[in-house]
Amino acid sequence: MSITESVSVTMAAMTPVKRQARAERTRAALLTAAREVFEERGFLDAKISEICERAGVAYGSFYTHFADKDAVFAELIDAMLAGLLAVMRAEPLNGDGPTARIASANRAYLRAYRKNARLMAVFEQVATFSPAMRETYLRAWGVFYDRQERAIREWQRAGLVPDDVEPRTAAVALATMIGRTAYTWYVLGRPHDDGDVEQLTRLYCRAIGM
Amino acid sequence: MSITESVSVTMAAMTPVKRQARAERTRAALLTAAREVFEERGFLDAKISEICERAGVAYGSFYTHFADKDAVFAELIDAMLAGLLAVMRAEPLNGDGPTARIASANRAYLRAYRKNARLMAVFEQVATFSPAMRETYLRAWGVFYDRQERAIREWQRAGLVPDDVEPRTAAVALATMIGRTAYTWYVLGRPHDDGDVEQLTRLYCRAIGM
Amino acid sequence: MSITESVSVTMAAMTPVKRQARAERTRAALLTAAREVFEERGFLDAKISEICERAGVAYGSFYTHFADKDAVFAELIDAMLAGLLAVMRAEPLNGDGPTARIASANRAYLRAYRKNARLMAVFEQVATFSPAMRETYLRAWGVFYDRQERAIREWQRAGLVPDDVEPRTAAVALATMIGRTAYTWYVLGRPHDDGDVEQLTRLYCRAIGM
Amino acid sequence: MSITESVSVTMAAMTPVKRQARAERTRAALLTAAREVFEERGFLDAKISEICERAGVAYGSFYTHFADKDAVFAELIDAMLAGLLAVMRAEPLNGDGPTARIASANRAYLRAYRKNARLMAVFEQVATFSPAMRETYLRAWGVFYDRQERAIREWQRAGLVPDDVEPRTAAVALATMIGRTAYTWYVLGRPHDDGDVEQLTRLYCRAIGM
DNA sequence: GATGAATGAGTATTCATTCAT
DNA sequence: AATGAATGAATACTCATTCAT
User: Nearest residue to E3, CA vs C1'?
Assistant: First the structure.
């Protein structure tokens, strides 16, 4: 081992940049490992020790990067929700008419949900006992409701949806229908097929009188 | 009562009855206390010791009547679900036309849900980490789906609902909409009013083309 | 069911004799069941509840007949030891010469031990942590030592055993050899055959210079 | 020490050593305390909490070093048996003739046993109810038997012991005599003196016809 | 930043024994 | 005598978090 190599392993000799880079790597490894462990065991049975083992990081190092178990989890959820939101935003809101837009929005949502189903399951779990996570949960649904509500109001303005539809209530109910059906399919494992996605869209459209 | 019968009801035979009475009282007290504690603290933070204290019963007596914490909980849930089912069955399925029936069924469901909202919340919680309770959860929803499906099929036969509605998929989606909206309102506390109930029914009816 | 039969089941009507007889039956059933349970589970894992179940007797009735778990056990051990002693005493101390006598005594002891091996195992177990049972244990060995010692002294008086054999020490050592070999064979399950019994006797005789 | 070596021993590399040292101290303190507590109370009444108190260590630290109560105990027993074996092996097998060798081997064994008598007592206890410890127990005796058997065979080859002595049976019986007499003396507390040791050896030698 | 040993609060469950009928 | 419900003491083990190097 040359002196240079040896020195590179010591702290004093590390340049700030290298130090940061190393920390970033550790942090990333912990996040990846944490997601795996949470998905496999759920929040309650996830152990910090296992996260560290998988990340190939010392036990105590976890707390160098995260305040506590809740903090890693929150970060994973935030990232996931941001990704979900990005997918939804990427979906062109205009296009071949409202029905097609609803269809493609639903498909996009369901696809994104399925990709994150295992973490979603844990999100639902934690939201049942953690006030902080319940906040996040409500906020996420709020965003979802808002999008539907905005769309419905537009359609009403365009005369595509009758006025006796109360936009907010309908938005909440239909977002719930879509969102919870995703849970039912991908988390609880209820069988379903592509035709069901179409049905879902048809129910959605008819429900608001389209 | 003949002499023979009367004589046969001596000591040995009578005592069990008395015993049962006392035991039944203890058991009932534990169940009541358990429901309270579960509702206040959730499943995870519910302590057997607190249940016993509230029931005015010695710690060990809990285990005279229930195998463990899961067992009391399961019994409470079973009772609650049986009650819910009874309410749903009590609802007359005939009457002033399908729309009115749907309306009254939804009202009945929401009313019953609200009355049990706090225990429902815990039910949802436990279903996220207990395989046994997930089973119960799926079974309960299954019953709910079945009822909707049966109704939709009847309406199709009567020509009230178009044939392009796939009864099972629609049943699952709409039961989910109603059921999860109840959770959203009564467990998560989202504001709502009586008009929202009407809207819900309207969305339901329109969705299946009624 | 006739009145007479019915009455016979009640306490008030039972004659003292019948009552005693019944109690005796219950007690006997408990003893039999207790032996089974102790033998199957060892003392520590033996449960009063299981003893009562097997005896077909109510839980609380156990304490009508025995002060506690230790008491039943003590009674079983006492009975077993009395039986063992009886076997040993039945063995004719005279006969075809000392060697033959030693041989038949050993055979008798080993046979009796084997028949009680499972309870013996529990006896050894309890003697390691119960002061009272250790007393019994020491007393039982004392009796065994005494018999050997007496025999050795007789043989010395008859000139069959040299005087440099210290009767007590030899008695303790050889009784230990025989007694613990029985444990090794029948409790620990070390393989052995009939030839080994002969060997044991030969070792015994030679050890004391016979 | 060269510069290279010195540099390579920086932080990361040095720390583990220090850690180990502290951990080793804690571990040793726990082992010492555990032995004390087991000896005073027996296995069943030994409490982890008391072990930790005596070791001056936090409760949880016990589990940093041992999987459970059984694990510390097993380690203590293994160490004790290794020590015993070492003593026996240290005993020169050659010397002033077989009788003197037997005498000194017996003396060595009894001395070593006495030093460990209190832990031996607990070993015997645990062997009666723990399958794992019974394994260890049988293995330990097996080693003891083997040594005697080997010696007897040698003596037979040398013409010092008659051929009608079956080496294995005699080894088992005589090892049992010596080993269990040690238990009787040092654990059960039966009175004895130095003359008894000689007697024991004389019985041993005569038994195999020496 | 990394390491990993130390900390200690927290709790369900068992079961011998008692006791009211 | 029999019954069986009521009692409550007793304890090993987990694991998130801290902290000294």
Answer: A58
Side-chain half-sphere exposure of A77, counting CA atoms within 13 A: 25
Q: B89 CB contacts (<8 Å, ≥6 apart)?
A: none
Residues 133-162 of chain B within 7 A of strand F, judged by CB, are: none
Neighbours of B159 (CB within 10 A): 8
Helix (H) or strand (E) holding C203: helix C194-207
Mutate to test the interface with D, among C99, C130, C184 (most CBs of D within 10 A): C184
Q: How many CB atoms lie within 10 A of CB A87?
A: 17
Amino acid A56 reads: G
- Chain centroid to CA D206: how far? 28
pLDDT in tens, A82-139: 999 999 888 766 667 889 999 999 999 999 999 999 999 999 999 999 999 999 999 9
- DSSP secondary structure code for residue A72 in this structure: H
Q: How far is CA B197 from the centre of its chain?
A: 20
Inter-residue contact B120 to B186 (CB < 8 Å): yes
For residue B95, give the amino acid letter: G
Tens-digit pLDDT profile for residues A10-61: 444 456 566 677 888 999 999 999 999 999 999 999 999 999 999 999 999 9
CB contact under 8 A, A173 and B200: yes
The dihedral over CA atoms of A64, A69, A74, A79, expressed in degrees to the nearest 10, equals: 60
Greatest CA separation for chain D: 73
Angstrom distance (rounded) from CA A7 to CA A11: 8
List, for residues B103-118, the tens digit of each pLDDT value. 999 999 999 999 999 9
Q: How far apart are CA B124 and CA B140, in angstroms?
A: 12
**Whole-Å CA distances, D96 to C155, D103, D104, D112, D153:** 33, 11, 10, 22, 18
Cα B150 to Cα B206: distance, rounded to the nearest angstrom: 18
Task: Give the best residue of A2, A5, A10 to mutate against chain D (max D CB count within 10 A).
Answer: A10
Domains of chain D (ranges; CATH) run 1-66 (1.10.10.60), 68-210 (1.10.357.10)
In which residue are the tokens 């020169």 written? Answer: D92
Residue C16 has pLDDT above 80, yes or no: no
> Containing H/E element for A81?
helix A69-90
Contact B128, A125 (CB under 8 A): yes
Q: How far apart are CA C137 and CA C202, in angstroms?
A: 27
Which residues of chain B have a pLDDT value below 50?
Answer: 1-15
Cite the DSSP H helix spans in B46-184. 48-55, 62-65, 69-90, 97-115, 117-127, 131-157, 167-182
Q: Is the dihedral of CA B165, B167, B169, B174 positive or negative?
A: positive
Q: Specify burial of residue C63 (Cβ count, 10 A radius: 0-12, 13-18, 19+).
A: exposed
The C1' atom of E10 and the CA atom of D82 lie apart, in whole Å, by 39
Distance between CA atoms of residues C126 and A145, nearest Å: 70
C207: closest CA among C180, C158, C167? Answer: C167
Query: Is the pLDDT reported for residue A164 higher than 70?
Result: yes
Q: DSSP assignment, residue A184? A: I
In whole angstroms, what is the distance from residue B93 CA to residue B147 CA? 10
pLDDT at position A15, please? 60
Q: What is the dihedral of CA B53, B57, B63, B69, to 10 degrees?
A: -30
Question: What pLDDT sits at residue D8?
Answer: 37
Q: Is the C-beta of residue C65 closer than 7 Å to nucleic acid chain F? A: yes
Residue D3's pLDDT is 32
DSSP class per residue in A114-183: HHTHHHHHHHHHHHTT-HHHHHHHHHHHHHHHHHHHHHHHHHHHTTSS-TTS-HHHHHHHHHHHHHHHHI
**A129 and B42 Cβ atoms separated by less than 8 Å:** yes
